[in-house]
Prior knowledge:
Shape: globular
Strand content: 5-15%
Order of helices and strands: HHHHEEEHHHEHH
Radius of gyration: 19 Å
Number of helices: 9
Low-confidence stretches: none
Largest sheet: 4 strands, antiparallel
Structural class: alpha+beta
Helix content: 40-55%
Amino acid sequence: xxxxxxxxxxxxxxxxxxxxxxxxxxxxxxxxxxxxxxxxxxxxxxxxxxxxxxxxxxxxxxxxxxxxxxxxxxxxxxxxxxxxxxxxxxxxxxxxxxxxxxxxxxxxxxxxxxxxxxxxxxxxxxxxxxxxxxxxxxxxxxxxxxxxxxxxxxxxxxxxxxxxxxxxxxxxxxxxxxxxxxxxxxxxxxxxxxxxxxxxxxxxxxxxxxxxxxxxxxx
Length: 219
């Protein structure tokens, strides 16, 4: 994948963010989109070797639309400033997300703002064996790669059914269970970039496995 060309396209698009420019450059866009899809398929095969619970989603299905949803975000630009994909085809499991763009370059995964049922199940798992999750996120490779869980709209108090002095109250206060690793544009264009992405997802695998076991059990 020629990521330099991808960045050049995205910069051109952001300077000419309208349908008329996209229509005039649609062949340019589709050539890069097809190349990105091929890259996703190759990346899928690599991830499957290091994460036994990963079910590859074909790149053509995994890639996100480049159009912003103007119905819900009418003030957003017509087109996004990134190419992205949700890679794991398993249903109702922790996500695996890959994002290359002008705003950021991200390899991420987990449950972002899960529904109340899944959130309840994850918290029940933490109540039962939170030591296992803590061991995963406190491991040196995990800390080096992710630095811990992302803090997304944390509770200030304890969730319903749990006391303030719960031994895992810091984990129970999370409303999302997500980790993310960012790359610079220079890192993305290095020859070893794909290897680094695979390493990130390999480090993430025990975390996603824990979450997937958690949501598989009714709370």
